[in-house]
Amino acid sequence: MINNQKSIHELQLHTGVNVNRCYQCGKCTAGCQLADEMDFPPSMVMHMLQTKDEELLQQLLNSKTIWLCISCQNCIERCPMSIDIPHIMDYLREKSAGEHKINRQSRDIVAFHRAFLDSIKYTGRLYEIGLVAGYKARTFHLTQDVVLAPKMYAKGKLPLVPEMIKGTRNIKGIFRKTAP
Amino acid sequence: MSEQIINSPCGVKGTIGFYPGCSLKGSSSEYAQSVLAVAKAFDIELQEIQDWNCCGSTAAHNLNKELALSLSARILALSEKQGLTEVVVPCAACYNRLTVTQHELNNDAALKQRVCDIIDMPIKGNLQILNVMQMIDKYVADRLEEKVTTPFGHKVACYYGCLLVRPHNILQFDRLEDPQSMDILMKRSGAEPIEWGFKTECCGAGFSVSRTDVVAKLSGNIVKDAADRGAEAIIVACPMCQSNLDMRRPQINEYLKQKIDIPVIYITQAIGLAVGLSPKEVGLQKHFVPAQFA
Amino acid sequence: MEDVLIEKKPAIAGNSFSGELQKTANELLQSGEVELFIGYEEGTRFPRPCFIASTDEVGKLIFDDRCTGNLAVYLTRKDLIGDKKVGITASYFALRSILRLLTEHQIQLDKLVVLTVSAEKEVIRFATTDDITAYLQTAPIPVREDDKALIEKLNAMSREERWEFWSAELSKCFKCYACRAACPMCYCTKCIVEENRPQWIQPWASTLANIEWHINRAMHMTGRCADCGACGAACPLGLPIHLLSHQIVQEVTDNFALDVNQAVSGDNALSTFKPEDKENFIK
Amino acid sequence: MGRLGGALMSEFEPKIVAFVCNWCTYAGADLTGTSRIKYASNVKIVRFPCTGRIDFMLLLKAFAEGADGIIVSGCHPNDCHYTSGNFHARRRWVIFRGLLNFMGIDVNRIQFSWVSAAEGAKWADVVNGTVTTIRELGPYTEYRKAADYLVQQDKSIIDGQEALIKSVSSL
Amino acid sequence: MSKIGVFICHCGENISATVDCERVAAEAGKMDGVEFATDYKYMCSDPGQTLIKNAIKEKGLTGVVVGACSPRMHEPTFRKACAEAGLNPYLCEMSNLREHCSWVHEKNEQTTEKAIDLVKMLVEKVKKNKPLNAIKVPITKKALVIGGGIAGIQAALDIANAGQQVIMVEKEPSIGGHMSQLSETFPTLDCSQCILTPRMVEVAQHPNITLYTYAELEHLDGFIGNFKATIRLKAKSVDYKLCTGCGACTTKCPNKKIPSEFNEGLGMRTAIYTPFPQAVPNKPVIDRANCTYYQKGKCKVCEKVCPTGAIQYDLPDQFITEDIGAVVIATGFNVLKTDFFPEYGYGKYADVLTGLQFERLASASGPTLGEIRRPSDGKVPKKIVFIACSGSRDPAKGIPYCSKICCMYTAKHAMLYQHKVHDGESYVFYMDIRAGGKNYEEFVRRAIEDDGVNYIRGRVARIYEKDGKYIVKGADTLLGSKPVEIEADMVVLATAGVSNPGAEELAQKMHVSYDAYKFFAEAHPKLKPVETNTAGIFLCGACQAPKDIPETVGMASGAAAKVIGLFSNNELTREPLIAVVNRSAPPVFSTCVGCFMCQTACPYNAIEREEIKGRDGSVIKTVAKVNPGLCQGCGTCVAFCRSKAIDIQGFSNEQMFAEVMALMNE
User: Fold this and answer.
1) Of E103, E659, E661, the CB nearest to D33
2) What percent of chain B lies above the pLDDT cut of 90?
3) Alpha carbons E67 and E98: distance in angstroms, whole number
4) What are the two backbone dihedrals, phi and then psi, of residue E469, each rounded to the nearest 5 degrees?
5) Which of A16, A142, C5, E293 could form a disulfide with C240 if both were Cys (CB 3.0 to 4.6 A apart)?
């Protein structure tokens, strides 16, 4: 076991969370709606971080868990120690993406997020058809929801032309300045 | 139970800003329509924030914290620039992002400075950000009952979702578990809100497209509990919740192995109907699961 | 050096809100609610304190931006006040001192009418300490720009340079105790410098005795100082001694999370504690 | 040898005063003794009932009277014999240190510590550590210079004489 | 002019091995004011002490410095010797040449130099010493016990059995406290009431105990040995001299729907009531807030049915004042209610109970006569979930500490349930099982091994009701955090033990400190667990922190022993090393300016306000005054006083100043 004190320190620096505060009551997992789907439920994530084991940290960066966390905040609201698990998840996601360790099976989720951000980057707002197109292009799920779109359009729910805001330069600037 | 539902700060009534967010311009246009219709019915003047952008939603928040803060911050800055002191944000996700962003910036001067540099605009950070419940409570609640012409006489399950009430310490909206604000407003509109177990459980939110299976399961549990307890409609205040519970109904029914046809409508649609607006005026025809109330 | 420090603000004439104040003072004296009124009158260069016992003199009263001296200092002067019911026009800082004097049982609100004139030219009369506290929280704190430069300069110095600065400055002090006389908080029956069993501080003026005196003065201000700067303004040599008590104010704020207004209105910062107070300097 | 520190640095033996409480640190130092742990003899202990009793003036007096370093030590937080004396003391030291530092008085010469009655070894460490620190800092002549009224007077006289000689010789 | 004697001890070779004792004595002899200096092999020995005594007499010494071991060791010895020679003992000081010098330094010149300096410091100090006399405080031999639970009962009986007078004050109509509500007790499962009620009766009948029920402490003045307690006797509306406790009134009272406090709201009581059948005294009181007569002006049924005419509606609250020598606080604790927990339904579910409510269900004297039944529909629950740490170890919403008793009573509850509902299934959600105590771990093991209670390691996230069942959502952290969902018929929350609502107010009344959780604070966490920081006030039981019965009883006996010890003398002698505020001639009277900041700083509330009055009785000045009964001599006030108006005897400003100034002089 490679003990990696540094990465935990870094985590604390970024999130302000001291992972040692967790005493493993499991309430977060009990309330987590996606715990069933996760490879490591939230309380186990906390314990893996507590071990400071580098290998376990790598497993987390590679996990489905971090991409399945939906940031619903159930865990932190019920955590007796008020540990900000959603913040930890944010941190791990960012680190995972930054280090190109995104879990294979979770790439759909990340693809969706990226498509979403692309839409904002170029128009300032979410262009839903563009989003779905972008997502499909990234995932090759070309036939998904083919029935939904026409119906949405018929209900007046999908504008076909993207709405561009005036400050797109400003938006692009934001994307450039915050690029990891 | 306290009837004063929200500890809303008293402000001077004036023009209120309106941040629709992307969903309300697209897939949830009926929400925008009903919010504006109800506002009009109560003489509340809403002013759309000029040149607003997307708040970044879960995507930005998941991938890049600074980007997420900056996108939301731009909206705050624009509102301030427009001279607004209050902004109504009907979408629960946008409401959550904007409120949390303002809170985080106000609590970290260095971060605030960095973000202001990124968006190239100053931020004071004293905007009142209201969700629709807060807007109604602040400007309509005391007039609501007298305005009701056709009481919304149905059993309803008020579904708040996760983002509307969390994180509690930042949003300071309603109570932590088993929130009441929507229930109280619905009661005043003539409905009969039911006690149920899934008020704040997550619907699957942003996984609508990428993990439809998860949405079917999470939303399925919600729809089932509401239906089991005899609700005739699920009332929501979030476009994501609405679209997951409504548009994903085929997948939900498939997961539940049961056909449930309980409609999912926005609180502003229900209130609109109660104060005498027509179904069309509140965009009721736009839902996938037919919503017809006699 | 000293000219940077005690540079008085230019007189802002025409900004006087005196009319209503005179009216109020007149009423108070006439009704007998107040037997002595402490306020400001026009002086040769700056407004100066005046003590009005009859309605004839009310016309002298003024109150404007230049009236920054801390009149609260007179409230503990038994020779001046005796058992009289007193009215006072308090500047922002004087209000802080009044709060502190109240918590330290030196004055009673039932024998005192506290007035101030707000930026909106309104005469405000305070009925309770809470009113004063509330006012202090909302009213703008008068800034003393002139000090800022020196504080920054001092903070930029090395320790040795600071020592050079202060020992040089304080070596000039000749212990006239004008600083003590100007301070509303220096109301002790017997000052530490008058204590001779033991003789804590040598009575003559020497650099060390001067330093010791000023350290004592500053330490004794902990949690009590209104940060009004009256001590520095009173110094005939213009020594920046008010920066010492200002530093104490700063330390209290930084270390105990008590801003000046909180500090002056509650239990003393040193007579209370929190188990979690910082102690990173303790081995 | 005059007070003004004519001693060579290598020979410099700092004078250190320790202000300690009776119940923890004094007893802790007793334990150092009964355990026969050796430490530098530069320190002299003054016994107080409690750290809460220690007047800041005594620290200034010690510096003025020739101390190069000072140790202030008492019970650990929550262990005070008098419940809260050390908490009060701690607040006093926070403010005092801040003021001294602002005035350019060397706060590194004052070592604050918590030494319990069981920490005999820690007491020896604290003393030795302080001696090392002060030895590096050198004698605190800077402060004592201000203390010496007569020396100042002399200096001004000498300065005056020098000026006189200069002016005379330039004639 | 001082005539100081200096006596340097060799301590065998303990000092002389590294310190040149002869030289120290010789140097001391040259010191200013030293009349006599000598050294000797063993100063603490008889001849050594005689040496000192003779010197005092022969040389007329005005002060003595003994350079020897630590004053913590032999200061009393030498002070006694001085006193025997006619010198005030407080004019003797010790210089620590052994622990602080010879034992910790090498043999060399510096060590002897240091020894000389150390002696010099004390010589300078002792010149400023003043003769002091021990403080004598008279003692009123009567104890006040506040609270009539098991802690108060034990303390009162112990004190009374030692022959001392006790006044017991209980705020409820009956003594007994929480213990009387319990069903069986762990780890023996003996019936709580069976072991408690005899004790309650003993209290009522004890000749040395005066019992005031339905009473509260209103005010406490004074100090150790000399308190004055004002007690409010709340109006019972029943004359206990006439009442025989026949119970006619309580059976006939028409207002029967008042939730019973004793049954934790699970049963009902009448407006005129005795809390429970075994109550002591077994006489009723009228709960005026719920009585029809008091609220509506009509009824008086109780008066009509009372055979002795004991009902007296107009009785007001009464106040009595008692002189007291010591106080024992035994006010107990409280448990969080179920409405405290958002995720467990904010108290809206009828069958989600607290542990104390479950005790009532399981108790043979309870509302279901000991059968476990759901309050909602009276059905026997077939599946029951116990949730440990409900509010405990939860800084976010509850309290950060462990309530200590819950693990044990939860095991007991599950066990009792299994004993009563044979086909029932019980689950305990826990994080850690804290079963430290005699036979405690064995008890928990029995619940798991013999009674088949299912222990699941994990905390419950939420409970919601569906179709009359309570859906309990938890996770089994030992199965890789597998989510667990149980459809339970009843849920019992092991709610945290917290301080009593009135504890803070009571503490302030008595000037006793309390911790962040409003539990009363002991004077020292290790060595003074039953004392408070106010001399003469002791504490025991769960008012200090949640604790179980054996620990409570032990602590109560400990507090009683302290009281008995205090009462064993007629006078209390205290060291005069206390603070004093100076007094001087008029018109100054005292240099104290009356800012009273010392009052907040004093940990013992020993500083009082004294009004100095003129001949006409008008107040000239209000100054501080130290209560010698309360001051413990820490001196925090002394360092705090700006004008040095307050000083501490034995460590006075002059003494300490002299010691420091001597230190560096060469």
Assistant:
1) E103
2) 59
3) 8
4) -110, 160
5) C5
Partner B contacted by E138 (CB < 8 A): no
Number of domains in chain A: 2
Residue A154 domain boundaries: 105-178
Q: Can you give the pTM of this predicted structure?
A: 0.72
Both structure tokens of E297: 């002006």
Based on DSSP, count helices (H) and strands (E) in chain D, helices before strands. Answer: 6, 4
Mean predicted confidence (pLDDT) in E525-543: 91
Quote the CA–CA distance of C97 and C209 in Å, as a whole number. Answer: 28
Q: Which amino acid would we find at residue E653?
A: N
Q: Where are the domains of chain E?
A: 4-127, 135-234+317-331+500-570, 235-316, 333-498, 579-649
DSSP conformational letter for E483: E
**Which 3 state secondary structure label does DSSP give E293?**
helix
Contact call for residues B168 and B244 (beta carbons, < 8 A): no
Which residue matches tokens 């006694």?
Answer: E80
* 90-109 in chain A: CB under 8 A from chain E: none
> Does residue E415 sit in helix, strand or coil?
helix
Structural domain ending residue among the three candidates A61, A84, A102: A102
Give the C-alpha separation, D51 to E638, whole Å.
Answer: 11
Q: Are E622 and E612 in contact (CB under 8 A)?
A: yes
Q: What is the 3-state secondary structure (H, E, C) of D28-65?
A: HHHHHHHCCCCCCCCEEEEEECCHHHCCHHHHHHHHHC
Domain B147-286 has CATH 3.40.50.11810: yes
Do D44 and D28 touch, CB atoms closer than 8 A?
Answer: no
Q: Which residues of C touch E593 (CB under 8 A)?
A: 106, 187-189
Residue of A76, A155, A178 lying closest to B66 (CB–CB):
A178
SS3 for E238-259, per residue? ECCCCCCCCCHHHHHCCCCCEE
Q: Does B124 touch chain E (CB under 8 A)?
A: no
Residues of E within 8 A of C190 (CB-CB) are 588, 591, 643-645
Q: How far apart, in Å, are the Cα atoms of D20 and each of D48, D67, E105, E524?
A: 6, 16, 19, 20
Report the alpha-carbon distance of residue E458 to residue E389 in Å, rounded: 10
Start-end of H helices in E60-184: 71-84, 109-127, 150-161
Gap between the Cα atoms of E215 and E237, Å rounded: 13
List of chain A residues whose C-beta atoms are within 8 Å of the C-beta of residue B118:
173-174, 177-178
| Residue B225 forms contact with E (CB below 8 Å) | yes
Q: Is C11 exposed, middle or buried (0-12, 13-18, 19+ CB in 10 A)?
A: middle
- pLDDT classification of B8: cutoffs 50, 70, 90: very low
Residue matched to tokens 């919304």:
B152
At C267, which amino acid appears?
A: D
Give the least confident one: E118-132, E152-166, E270-284, E472-486: E472-486
Distance CA E385, CA E428 (A): 6
Q: What does the block give as tokens for A92?
A: 């791990």
What is the distance of C-alpha B144 from the center of its chain?
A: 19
- E345 CB near a chain B CB, below 8 Å? yes
The 3-state DSSP class for residue E261 equals coil
pLDDT (mean) for B52-78: 90
**C-alpha distance from residue E431 to each of A154, E159, E402, E476, E508 (Å):** 54, 41, 11, 10, 37
Encoding tokens for residue D169?
């010789």
Instruction: Give the burial class of E378: count Cβ atoms within 10 A of its Cβ; 0-12 exposed, 13-18 middle, 19 or more buried.
Output: exposed
**pLDDT tens, residue by residue, E455-512:** 999 999 999 999 999 999 999 999 888 889 999 999 999 999 999 999 999 998 887 8
Domain ranges of chain D: 14-139, 141-171
DSSP B9: P
Longest dimension (CA), chain A: 58
